[in-house]
């Protein structure tokens, strides 16, 4: 059944300052938030808002949009106004778009210290505009676009180089009293990335945005991100996360949410406890697990559903879950809260589980 004691994360969260990305607090003990980035042409307002709506539906809490041209900057006011979640404008090279994004009502702005040309002499103005509008800034350092000066100093994008770049940029803002900052130091190598964030976490109290950059296609990117975020979050480091995949952004959100749920940093929702199957299985466990997962997708109440291939661990796991099936002999014993409520033929297992799950969900919602 449901755990009696509230599930706890592995570590206390690192103490960080809190910033507000629109209505979403980041840092200072706020729940770790999940963000993603649109892949549409930002200037195509309809397509961008459509993708933001899809991301919102998938559980995304903050969305970033690229702003590489004046047409994109011109689209920001409508996007910021109509998006259901706070919008961060992602700015490289051109400080003028930072002002445009702030004027447009974006909830935050991301700048890359490695490639904002003529940035230095405009920090004062940017800090003032951002402070006046209550807009925080993400200092987003990326291994692939590291400041040339630091690349020369360190030879490559080492953790030290990434951290120095970020903190140097912060110091420029701090000179003007601006501290509404979050930081990222992304690298495509999870080991370098973890070391960079550990060093950064020790050297400042800004909230941290975690990301493994260019993590790759869905499978590799999911593993790299899960391993790197897992290492950091299990030490209490990280306030908001973005999984980068060469895949549709809603997939990034799913992975991000699952990482946080796995670490008890978010309440678990649907959890399928299914066995890997083995020579003892008497039903098609993969098919069963896939069908049950698909049938229950989108379920918001926390539910642990066991799908077990045989009677060895089957009854035990099925009893521990809210509901489950222990299969044997072409049949399935359906358990609800530890009690066998029915024995059904294999062809009826999925529909019976889904029916029972709906009943439990309705009862939970009514409580
Ligand atoms: Fe094999 Fe049964 Fe365990 Fe599934 S529950 S892995 S079928 S022993």
Automatic annotation (TrEMBL):
Residues 271-357 form the IspG C-terminal domain. Its cofactor is [4Fe-4S] cluster. GO terms for molecular function: 4 iron, 4 sulfur cluster binding; 4-hydroxy-3-methylbut-2-en-1-yl diphosphate synthase activity (ferredoxin); 4-hydroxy-3-methylbut-2-enyl-diphosphate synthase activity (flavodoxin); iron ion binding. It is an enzyme of class 1 (oxidoreductase). Its EC number is 1.17.7.3. It catalyses: (2E)-4-hydroxy-3-methylbut-2-enyl diphosphate + oxidized [flavodoxin] + H2O + 2 H(+) = 2-C-methyl-D-erythritol 2,4-cyclic diphosphate + reduced [flavodoxin]. [4Fe-4S] cluster binds at residues 275, 278, 310, 317. Residues 17-256 form the IspG TIM-barrel domain. Transmembrane segments: none annotated. InterPro entries: Dihydropteroate_synth-like_sf, IspG_bac, IspG_bac-typ, IspG_C, IspG_TIM, NO2/SO3_Rdtase_4Fe4S_sf. It comes from the Bacteria. Converts 2C-methyl-D-erythritol 2,4-cyclodiphosphate (ME-2,4cPP) into 1-hydroxy-2-methyl-2-(E)-butenyl 4-diphosphate. This is 4-hydroxy-3-methylbut-2-en-1-yl diphosphate synthase (flavodoxin). It comes from Streptomyces paromomycinus (Streptomyces rimosus subsp. paromomycinus). The gene is ispG2_1.
């Amino acid at each position: 059944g449901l755990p009696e004691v509230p599930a706890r994360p592995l570590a206390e969260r690192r103490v960080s300052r809190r910033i507000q990305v629109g209505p979403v607090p980041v840092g200072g003990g706020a729940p770790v938030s999940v963000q993603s980035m649109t892949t549409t042409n930002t200037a195509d307002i309809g397509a961008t808002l459509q993708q933001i709506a899809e991301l919102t539906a998938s559980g995304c809490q903050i969305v970033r949009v690229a702003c590489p041209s004046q047409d994109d900057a011109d689209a920001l006011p409508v996007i910021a106004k109509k998006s259901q979640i706070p919008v961060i404008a992602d700015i490289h090279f051109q400080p003028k778009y930072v002002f445009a994004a702030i004027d447009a009502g974006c909830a935050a702005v991301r700048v890359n210290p490695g490639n904002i040309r003529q940035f230095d002499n405009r920090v004062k103005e940017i800090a003032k505009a951002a402070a006046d509008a209550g807009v925080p800034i993400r200092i987003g350092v990326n291994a692939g676009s590291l400041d040339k000066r630091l690349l020369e100093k360190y030879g490559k994008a080492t953790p030290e180089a990434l951290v120095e770049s970020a903190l140097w940029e912060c110091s420029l803002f701090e000179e003007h009293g601006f501290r509404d900052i979050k930081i990222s130091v992304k690298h495509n190598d999870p080991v370098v990335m973890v070391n960079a964030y550990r060093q950064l976490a020790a050297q400042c109290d800004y909230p941290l945005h975690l990301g493994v950059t260019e993590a790759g296609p869905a499978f590799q990117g999911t593993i790299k991100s899960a391993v790197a975020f897992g290492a950091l979050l299990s030490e209490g480091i990280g306030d908001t996360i973005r999984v980068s995949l060469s895949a549709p952004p809603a997939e990034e959100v799913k992975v991000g949410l699952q990482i946080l749920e796995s670490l008890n940093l978010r309440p678990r929702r649907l959890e399928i406890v299914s066995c890997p199957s083995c020579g003892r299985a008497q039903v098609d466990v993969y098919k069963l697990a896939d069908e049950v997962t698909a049938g229950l997708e989108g379920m918001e109440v926390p539910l642990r559903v066991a799908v077990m291939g045989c009677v060895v661990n089957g009854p035990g796991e099925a009893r521990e879950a809210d509901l489950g099936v222990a299969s044997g002999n072409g049949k399935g014993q359906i358990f609800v809260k530890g009690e066998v409520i029915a024995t059904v033929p294999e062809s009826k297992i999925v529909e019976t589980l889904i029916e029972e799950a709906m009943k439990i969900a309705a009862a939970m919602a009514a409580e």
